[in-house]
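Whiteboard transcription, Tuesday session. T.W. wrote the C-alpha cells on the left side:
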C-alpha cells in the first residue's frame, strides 16, 4: 500500500507546471534601452536632413508669428495682409519719389580728381561716355567741363580742391540769371558722384544745355567803374 506522502508526490508530478513569472525592468533602464534601440540608423533612413529640419522650424516660426499677428489685428489674417500691402505700396512710392537713398559724405569731395585738363577735353570725354550710355560718367565730366570753362573765362579763379557746390555759388555772382540752374547742376553732380544715385540721358541733356548756354552768356561785371 502506497503511503500518503508518496501519493501526494505522484499527484504533484501530474500537475501543470506553473507559468514563468514575467520579467520586469525598472523604468529608467527600460527608457535607456528604448532610446538606444531607436537611435539605430535603421529607424532614421527617411528622416529629413539638417537643412530641411532648419527650414521646417523656420516656416513653423513664421506661421506662428502670422497667427499671433493675425489674432491681434482687426480683420484677422486678411487685415494683416492688407496692412502689409499698404506698407509695401508706401515704400515703393517713397523709393520712386526719392530714388536710391543718398549717402551723405561728411565733407564734399573736390570736383576735379585728376590733373588739369581743358574744358574741351572734359566735353569730349563727356560726349564719349554719353554715346556709350555711361550717364554717370557723362554727367560728371560735363560738370567739370562747365566749371573749367568758367575758369578759362576768368569768371572763376582756378583753385584746387573746389567742390561743385562752391563752384556753383561763386559762379552765380557773375551769372545771377543762372544761379538756380548752377545749384541744380552741382546737386546732380554730387548725387551721382557721391550720393549713390544713377544718372540718365535727361539729366545729362540738362547739364549739357546749361554748359553750352553759359558759354554764350555775358557775365555781370561787378566792381566796374560807373
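and on the right, the sequence the group agreed on:
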Amino acid at each position: 500500500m502506497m503511503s500518503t506522502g508518496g501519493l501526494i508526490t505522484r499527484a504533484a508530478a501530474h500537475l501543470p507546471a506553473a507559468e514563468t513569472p514575467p520579467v520586469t525592468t525598472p523604468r529608467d533602464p527600460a527608457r535607456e534601452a528604448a532610446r538606444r534601440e531607436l537611435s539605430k540608423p535603421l529607424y532614421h533612413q527617411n528622416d529629413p536632413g539638417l537643412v530641411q529640419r532648419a527650414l521646417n522650424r523656420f516656416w513653423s516660426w513664421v506661421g506662428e508669428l502670422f497667427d499671433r499677428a493675425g489674432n491681434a489685428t482687426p480683420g484677422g489674417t486678411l487685415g494683416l495682409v492688407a496692412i502689409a500691402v499698404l506698407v509695401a505700396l508706401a515704400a515703393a512710392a517713397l523709393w520712386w519719389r526719392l530714388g536710391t537713398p543718398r549717402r551723405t559724405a561728411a565733407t564734399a569731395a573736390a570736383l576735379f580728381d585728376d590733373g588739369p585738363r581743358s574744358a574741351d577735353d572734359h566735353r569730349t570725354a563727356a560726349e564719349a561716355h554719353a554715346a556709350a550710355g555711361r550717364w554717370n560718367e557723362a554727367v560728371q565730366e560735363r560738370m567739370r567741363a562747365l566749371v573749367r570753362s568758367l575758369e578759362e573765362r576768368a569768371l572763376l579763379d582756378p583753385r584746387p580742391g573746389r567742390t561743385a557746390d562752391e563752384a556753383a555759388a561763386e559762379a552765380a555772382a557773375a551769372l545771377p540769371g543762372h544761379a538756380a540752374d548752377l545749384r541744380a547742376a552741382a546737386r546732380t553732380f554730387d548725387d551721382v558722384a557721391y550720393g549713390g544715385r544713377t544718372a540718365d540721358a535727361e539729366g545729362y541733356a540738362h547739364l549739357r544745355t546749361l554748359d553750352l548756354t553759359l558759354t554764350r552768356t555775358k557775365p555781370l561785371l561787378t566792381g566796374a567803374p560807373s
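Someone added at the bottom: DSSP finds nine helices and no strands in the chain.
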